[in-house]
């Protein structure tokens, strides 16, 4: 059992809930370790075909727990690079590389690393009352957890720079209008919308979805020529899956496909 997160698997969906509501689910070392352990467990579990991440309480995640940082004048300055290397970077890499869809249900404020962990997910729903803040600049830090990579790609360089330098709070609606997230929904509809989407994806061709994820992730740094080659290679792999065979057969037989995820 976990102390600072909840983790359960149901109907092919693993739901990971950040659970330190008193500090808006900010990350301490224990919560990082628990998230890492849950994701390890997920990777060993063949029944999981979609991951959904959310938070308990009125916040999604406020990034690093700042009460864990001793910044007293006489204290040795912490090595934040080590914290990023040990905790945040592996988490972002794992989310981006997981060979299944990762959905985020942003239930409240997402600040600092909390915002960028949400934006690293594949499909992001947010409650209307939720918000996104690149809070780093307000304490002299640089956006991390992939924010300086994800943000300009999602909202363009002008908005990415202003968001990062001003640390303004962006509403869920604005985030959706800017294309930063997939969808802003009424608060009471958030978990239903996110779970419905997750359960749907858990019945879809998981290997094909993983290849889509790879193609779109790699497109950020590829030339068109490289991307065309990659599409050829990934289509070759997709075309060898049982789910492709089932998809075509079901279409021809005018019936609903039954995908197995392989
Ligand atoms: O250090 C490293 O390892 C480097 C990596 C850094 C990654 C990062 O994420 S750096 C950025 C860290 N996060 C922030 O700077 C955000 C800090 N929080 C806020 O700015 C505000 O709390 C929010 C804008 C997110 C929400 O504001 P509001 O007014 O809705 O809530 P609040 O009253 O500020 O917070 C509620 C409680 O949560 C409060 O505790 P209290 O007074 O009720 O006992 C507050 O102290 C606590 N809380 C919120 N964020 C954090 C936190 N406690 C510790 N760390 C936090 N990040």
UniProtKB/TrEMBL annotation:
InterPro entries: ClpP/crotonase-like_dom_sf (IPR029045), Enoyl-CoA_hydra/iso (IPR001753), Enoyl-CoA_hydra_C (IPR014748), PaaB1 (IPR011968). The keyword Lyase applies. It holds the Pfam family ECH_1. GO terms for biological process: phenylacetate catabolic process. Its EC number is 4.2.1.17. One of its GO terms (molecular function) is enoyl-CoA hydratase activity. Keywords: Lyase. It comes from the Bacteria. Belongs to the enoyl-CoA hydratase/isomerase family. NCBIfam families: PaaB1. This is Enoyl-CoA hydratase.
């Amino acid at each position: 059992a976990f102390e600072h997160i909840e983790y359960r698997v149901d109907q092919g969906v693993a739901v990971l809930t950040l659970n330190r509501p008193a500090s808006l689910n900010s990350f301490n070392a224990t919560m990082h370790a628990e998230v890492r352990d849950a994701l390890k467990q997920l990777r060993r579990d063949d029944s999981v075909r979609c991951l959904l991440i959310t938070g308990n309480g009125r916040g999604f995640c406020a990034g690093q727990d700042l009460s864990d940082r001793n910044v007293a004048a006489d204290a040795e300055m912490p090595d934040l690079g080590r914290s990023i290397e040990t905790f945040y970077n592996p988490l972002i890499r794992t989310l981006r590389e997981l060979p299944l869809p990762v959905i985020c249900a942003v239930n409240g404020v997402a600040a600092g690393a909390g915002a960028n962990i949400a934006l690293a997910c594949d499909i992001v729903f947010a409650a209307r009352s939720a918000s996104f803040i690149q809070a780093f600049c307000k304490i002299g830090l640089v956006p991390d957890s992939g924010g300086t990579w994800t943000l300009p790609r999602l909202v363009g360089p002008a908005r990415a720079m202003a968001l990062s330098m001003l640390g303004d709070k962006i509403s869920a609606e604005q985030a959706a209008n800017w294309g930063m997230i997939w969808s802003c929904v009424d608060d009471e509809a958030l978990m239903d919308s996110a779970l419905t989407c997750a359960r749907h994806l858990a019945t879809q061709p998981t290997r094909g979805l993983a290849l889509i994820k790879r193609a779109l992730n790699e497109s950020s740094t590829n030339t068109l020529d490289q991307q065309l080659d990659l599409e050829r290679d990934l289509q070759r792999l997709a075309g060898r899956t049982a789910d492709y065979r089932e998809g075509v057969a079901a279409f021809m037989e005018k019936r609903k496909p039954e995908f197995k995820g392989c």
